[in-house]
Amino acid sequence: MITLFDSIKKQKLKFEPISPKQVRIYVCGPTVYDDAHLGHARSSIAFDLWRRLFLFLDFKVIFAKNFTDIDDKIIKKSLQNGISVEEVSERYIELYLNDMHALGILRPDLEPKATSNLPQMHEMIEQLLQKGYAYKGENNDVYLSIAKDKAYGSLSQRTTHEQNQSRITNANDKQEESDFALWKGYKGEDDIAYDSPFGKGRPGWHIECSAMIEKHLAYDMREKQEYEKQEFAIDIHAGGADLLFPHHENEASQTRCATGRELAKYWLHNGFVNINGEKMSKSLGNSFFIKDALKVYDGEILRNYLLGVHYRLALNFNEEDLLQSKKRLDKIYRLKKRIMAERIADSIPQTKALDSTELADQLESLNTLKTHTKNAQDSFIKPLLEALSDDYNISKALSIIEEMLSISNDYLDKNPKDKAYKLAISGNLACIEYLLGLGDKDPTLYFQLGLTEQERQDIESKLQARTEAKKQKNYVLADSIRDELKSQGIEIMDTPQGSTWEKI
Ligand SMILES: [Zn+2]
């Protein structure tokens, strides 16, 4: 049984999918006018974890995340830089996808863009006008009248005021202050405009998610008859806690009024990332951008840190905690290295789950990995899945992993040649890799992270020189090379297969 905390009902609910063994998830994606920040990273990781859990439990998952590529901020950036809005959005979409790839996020099944879905938005706005929920203002503006939606406020327990006034450039033609724009009429030369049945202009922010969910997840993927009897458009709508009001409230209202059904059966919201101002970091500066964190830390190390705090809680980002959490990842790789060193069998998974940015390749890698998870110990995987299925209880899951690592190491100390046991451990590690997206690197490479290619080459040639010196019984030279590398933070390990090294 899976339970999840529904942020509308404010309690843990048993997850019952709309269609058996299927789950449709929509996550509000970024507005692409700037680099992605740690808040984006956290949200992406949180719902990537949920997605992996559903996939592991053999659900058919349809996962969508949009790109908001029409927005005031994008227009502003294009004017500032003298480039088109398309160039701005395309640039930041590419950078966003690179960041997500580095963080080990599975690529969504669907990545709808606002600019590619204008007809769907027009259609929904027309429905809202026809049914009397929306009205036209001056200058081709169209608003939703929230007074007409009796259920407005049911998500956030908020109704009026404190709306996103900043998005409304001309509030004079609204009937009520808290009505929000579905379509914004063209305002002049610094604006951009698309044709529509309501005149030139551009869509409001909220309508894009409702229209894209309706089109791609609710309608396109169902038989007509099945579509018509649905009470909910999708299973899970997710996003950052800051989106609950007004964005999600408005999305839900539009869908309810236009289609007569609720937008989502369950609503999940992830907590914020807080940065401790000046104290935050020496090496990161006070940057909130993923790209700057990635200059200092490998994406997997960042992922490992960001997933360690329950997805609904706030995370106070600081590098001390990040380095502390890295020890957990080190232990995973240490065990992986230990069982791989003896080359027990080809049955140890060697997948690179996220080598490709193509979803099909990623899912294929996950399928391959799944075959290895069959070797996992029941005593490990059962409680692990139980913890994750309980509203993604990550602290419990991590302590189960910690315990498994420690028991495995103790056992291997006493029984270093037990191949069956090693195979079971490789199964356990495959489960961690699949579910948490951790541990997919070659362990030797993992312990060499943080060096440039040039530095790696220098170390390799010194290592070779040392091997040569040892062959010629020049132990003084061999030892001096070892000491020299050690002073650079490089430790040499001599194994029956030859010498390797790690960055310590
Ligand atoms: Zn949205």
Commentary on this structure:
The chain has 504 residues and is α/β, with parallel strands linked by helices. 47% of the residues lie in helices and 14% in strands. It is built from 17 helices and 14 strands. It has a four-stranded parallel sheet. Helix 2 (72-81) crosses helix 3 (85-102), helix 4 packs across helix 7 and helix 12 runs antiparallel to helix 13. The chain is elongated. The two termini are 43 Å apart. Mean pLDDT is 90; it is low at 162-169 and 278-282. The site of zinc ion has 4 residues, from helix 7.
SSE arrangement:
Elements lengths: L2 E4 L4 E4 L7 E6 L10 H19 L3 E6 L6 H10 L3 H18 L15 H13 L3 E3 L5 E3 L35 E6 L15 E3 L1 H15 L4 H5 L3 E9 L3 H16 L2 E9 L2 E3 L14 H7 L2 H8 L8 E3 L1 H23 L17 H15 L4 H12 L4 H21 L4 H18 L6 H4 L6 H19 L3 H13 L2 E6 L2 E6 L1
Parallel strand pairs: 3-4, 3-9, 9-10, 11-12
Antiparallel strand pairs: 1-2, 5-6, 6-7, 7-8, 13-14
Helix pairs in contact: 2-3, 4-5, 4-7, 5-7, 9-10, 10-13, 11-14, 12-13, 13-14, 16-17
Low-confidence stretches: 162-169, 278-282
Structural class: alpha/beta
Global mean pLDDT: 90
Strand segment tally? 14
Largest sheet: 4 strands, parallel
| Terminal CA distance | 43 Å
- Shape type: elongated
Helical segment count: 17
Placed side by side, the strands forming the largest sheet appear as 4-3-9-10
Radius of gyration over C-alpha positions, nearest whole angstrom: 26 Å
- What proportion of the residues form beta strands (DSSP E)? 5-15%
Task: List cofactors, ions and other ligands.
Answer: zinc ion
State the share of residues found in helices, binned by percent: 40-55%
